[in-house]
Amino acid sequence: MEMMEKLWTYMQADSKAEQINRELRSSPLRQKLEKMQTYILERQQAYKTMEQQVANHADRKDALQDVLQRAKGQLEALEQRFAQQPPQDTEQVDAMIEEIKRCQRRISEYQHELERIFADAKGFTSRAQTIRSETARARQQFMEMKDRYTEELASRKTAYQEARAAADAQAQGIPEDLMQLYSNAKKHTWPPMARLVGSQCSGCNTALPSAALRKIDAGDSYVECENCGRILIK
Ligand SMILES: [Zn+2]
Fold this sequence. Notes:
Blueprint: H1 2-25, H2 28-84, H3 90-171, H4 176-188, E1 193-197, E2 200-201, H5 210-218, E3 231-233
Parallel strand pairs: 1-3
Antiparallel strand pairs: 1-2
């Protein structure tokens, strides 16, 4: 049946267009780009987290500097009192010395914590710089890759459009209902047509019932394989 041969030719042209389309979607460059994008987003997130930590640290540092200042003031006041109103007995002396010592201990604790914070801040700053330069490098690579991909896409798209137009040209003259049958079959199987080999569908190697074979021989209706749904052609 001539019409079926026409559809078969159309399928070959359609197949070429589909192939280009598949390649377009699975382009290694495109996959790399997607990975790179995810990486950049992760780095940006890490940088934000780092900035938050730096801000928290700065707050803690300010608070510590305040209490340190206050403790130093207290110590000064204590020392003045000790000089201006010297204690009268050893008990008072011991109490005052104890008070001064407590104050000095607090001051030294605050100072230690501040030193720790300064050291941490240095670490944060250098890590933040690393993250920033990693992100910048990745972004640079991303942009370069994107340019290449855009070029690739443009050339492949033209190739696809040409292949699609060629297929459309082949579809000229094929009845609407047969094209509909074809696109339905295409939705769940590829290729959507199969040659009959002996009494078997060459798509799935299932033997066809004699009624179906007779129909194909008569050539007055379209027959689909009962097993795989492909349109059968002699
Ligand atoms: Zn089949």
